[in-house]
Every structure is written in C-alpha cells, then in structure tokens.
Amino acid sequence: MAELQEYKCPCCGGGIEFDSDIQKMKCPYCDTEFEMEALAAYDEDLKADRDDDMSWETAAGSDWQEGEADGLRIYVCESCGGEIVGDETLAATACPFCDNPVVMKGQFAGDLKPDYVIPFKLDKEAAKAALRKHYEGKRLLPKVFKKENHIDEIKGIYVPFWLFDTDADANLRYKATRVRTWSDSNYYYTETSFFSVRRAGTIGFERVPVDGSVKMDDALMESLEPFNFKDAVDFQTAYLSGYLADRYDVDSEKSIERANVRIKKSTENTFASTVQGYATIVPEATNIQLKNGKAKYALYPVWLLNTKWRGNQYVFAMNGQTGKMAGNLPMDKGIFRRWLFGLWGGVSAAVLAVLYLLWLL
C-alpha cells in the first residue's frame, strides 16, 4: 500500500486537507486556502533544503627559515600568562594585556611565520592624541584616566589575525506576508496573504579577519575594523623592531567557527535585504555551502592602553593604520551623583519658577 503524504500548513503548521467545495487544499485551523500548484512547488522547496556545509582547508602561515627568527625573544607575563614576542633589544617592559611586568622566557621557536604584516602607519603621539580625543566631552570620566602618566604607557603591538577567503553558495527561503485592510459600514476586514520567497546566489568573501589571541577581546578587535589590506606586505622580522607582537594561542582551525558565524550572518543579511515589498519576512531555511575556502596568517598593528581603576581593568585600542579608537570608559559615581543632584536642583528651580509665575497670574 502506498504511503499517504501529509501536508503541513506553511502558515500555522497544522495538517491541511483537500476541500471538495472549493477544490483547494485548506487548513482547518487557520482557514488558509492553497492552490494545488503552489502547494506542490512549496513541497519541492522543502525537499531541496540541505544543511550548511562550512568546511575549510587551512594552510595559513609558513615555517621559519634557518636563522630567520634568531633575533626574536619570548616574554611572559607571570600575572596573566600572556606571551609576547619582541626583538633582542627590547628593554624591560610591562604586559600590554594587564600592565604587570614581564620577564624574558627565552628564544622564540615553534609558531608559524606570518604570511603578511600591515606596518604601523601612526606613531605613539598619534595614539595619545586619539585617546585624548576619545576622552573629550566625557564629564563623568574619572580624572585618573586623563593623567599624562597613563597616556604615556600606551604600547604598540602586532595582533595575530587569521584571514579567511571563500565563496558562499547560498540558498535561502523566507515566509513573507502582505496585509490588506478595508471596511464597510459594519466591519473592518484584514486579509493576510502568505508567500514563500526564495533567494539563491553566490557571494565572495576576502580576508574575513578573526584575531588569534584569547587575550584580545573579539568585540574590541572587530570594532577597530576595517584594516586596509592594500598596505600589507610580505612578513619580515624587521617590522617588529620597536614593537611587541602578540603570540597567537588560537590556531586557524579553532578560528573557523567565528569566521563561519561572521560569513553566515553577512550572507543572510545581504540576501534578506533583497526581499522587499512585504509586510513581514521570516527566514524559514538557510543553506550555505562554502567552496574555495583558504586562510592566511597576518599581523595587524594596534596601539593598546591597559589600566585599572577601583579594581576593574580597562583596555583601549587604536587601529595603528587608520587611527580608529575603541574602548569602554568607566564612570565616576561620585561625579555622577553630583551631576544628577545639580540637574535635579535645576529642574526643581525651574518648576518653582513656573509655579510662582502661575501664582502671580
């Protein structure tokens, strides 16, 4: 005996059946009617749905050549465990992540050699000026953040990034509605029409960045984007002279998940923006297949200021290429209370003045 197929209502999910009076399929739960041809096309769409395939082949970085890394040293922070790379001329310094002293561990070895580096284009003075501008207008900012001795502690560091290239074949289906309303002398009417909308195509991604450091907050690093890759050059150790370099502790394989999240979100947003002319749009199915995926390893320039206030740690970062600044600022609660009291006092005085004028009138 042939197995009967049960159709589900695309609108409410209930089982639908053929209505002989209207010669259409009809949902007994929401009273939606369906043409047989439309229902058959929707069924074919459901059968075509597949799971995402977002796998990669990563071959980022390369092996160091003999003698190429001889001048590099590993410095370790005994407080937070952070490891940074510097040249052999690096004097005693503080950890760029927690501001505690670091000690030299020994000769650099083991990690992959970066494919590219974007050299610093902005110096420390530009970073200090950007930080002062970041402070402007912040009346509730603690005074300690405006002191010159904190600004002088800003450090230039090359942050490890994995750069992902890929083409994304996307097939997306949306449930969309159009609403029509009208009325007569007795009633208001609302008619909701449901549509199954499909979008498909290919979108290319180049150098989607994911920072390769646990110590660097992903949101902070993403807020410094974009970095302009036209200034990137093949890596040479000479570019590290005078700067620190963060030693990656998240490899390319472990960074794929975050790259996929960014690629998937960008793909969905791009295709959704083409679905127009409807009252509502709800994604029903998304299928993304990646192809030609590859990754490269690069160092990007960042100026960091790490400081503490009342037991909390604050990190500010500036894009060492474009000058874009990011970082959360603390609020001095004492200043806030005084400001709030003054504001309330001003409001109270204004209210009393109005009441006095009304009394005079």
Distance between the termini: 93 Å
Total domain units? 2
Task: Give a quick account of the main beta sheet: strands, pairing sense, barrel closure.
Answer: 11 strands, mixed
Rg measurement, Å: 30 Å
Q: Round the mean pLDDT to the nearest integer and report it.
A: 77
- How large a portion of the residues is in β-strands, by DSSP E? 25-35%
Q: Can you tell me the residue ranges where pLDDT is under 50 for at least 5 consecutive residues?
A: 355-361
The total count of strands amounts to 14
Helical content class: 10-25%
Give, in order, the helices and strands.
EEEHEEEEHHEEHEEHEEEH
Overview of the structural elements:
By secondary structure, this protein is of the alpha+beta class. The chain has two domains: 7-48, no CATH class; 72-166 and 201-268 and 291-338, no CATH class. The protein is 23% helix and 35% strand. The strands form two sheets. Strands 4, 5, 6, 7, 8, 9, 10, 11, 12, 13 and 14 form an eleven-stranded mixed beta sheet that branches. The longest helix has 28 residues, at 333-360. The radius of gyration is 30 Å and the shape is elongated. It starts with 16 loop residues before the first strand and ends with a helix.
Tag the structure with descriptive keywords:
361 residues, alpha+beta, 3-stranded antiparallel beta sheet, 6 helices, 14 strands, disordered C terminus
